[in-house]
Amino acid sequence: MQWSNQLTRSIGIEYPIIQAPMFGVTTPEMVIAASRAGALGSLSLGDLPPERCSELIRLTAENLKRPFAVNIFVNNIPKVSFDLRKQYSETKTFVEQLAAQHDLKVTLPELDSIHLTDYREQIDVIITHRCKVVSFTFGNLDTESIKRLKDNDVTLIGTCTSVAEAIALEESDIDIICVQGLEAGGHRGSFDETPISLYVMLVTLWFTIYRLLGIGSITQKYCI
To answer: How far apart are CA 13 and CA 3, in angstroms?
Structure first.
């Protein structure tokens, strides 16, 4: 069977398969094994601090001569406000009380002790290590980050969970669009509020593509 297509040729992999970047589960060893098997291994960096990102990328790259992707969370980190503190406190109390009712000991951290890494802090590390494929979820990259990555010949893979998100990624010149439906379960990489099943989304995307043929549309991208 012939596996070569635009996706495999653009990234330099043998099979059009991308190993899921599962934050907290994926290890450098898993990424190495997936890439050596001919797929695109994906190293999940989530919202890890730059130092840890650098360490994981180094551990992967020094044991692998094939392409692999790094995956980051593109979250909009809210400012710590009075309302946010109140919401967090109420949620913390609820979770801890619920756990106690089921004889579980759960203690959530205080809000001020939580540090969330802005993905822009990770971009410097990604460029320094010359990573050539970056996938992202929970949002869209800002214009400056997209330019910096593309100026360094990085292929970008964005996650969409609705037609509106797919169009937003296409308009941002994202190279590859990963389509994720409700069937993903657990959590989804949404940044638009409209939930939609994978089947409905693919059908809708198809008709959207058909209507836009020839005018610089999503047809120029790969949907996976």
So the answer is: 10
β-pair partners for 44 = 71
Quick one: tokens of 161? 């969970």
Which residues lie closer than 8 Å to 37 by C-beta, 6 or more apart? 15
Query: With left for phi above 0 and alpha for psi between -120 and 50, is residue 76 left, alpha or beta?
Result: beta
Q: In the chain, what are the domains? A: 6-76+117-203 (3.20.20.70), 78-115 (no CATH)
Which residues share a beta bridge with 71? 44, 135
Running along the chain, 224 residues long, what does each successive block of 10 average in pLDDT? 85 93 92 96 94 96 94 88 92 91 89 88 96 94 97 95 86 90 66 57 53 46 50
Contacts of 26 (CB under 8 A, 6+ apart): 19, 20, 42, 43, 44
Q: Provide the token pair at 169.
A: 């990624």
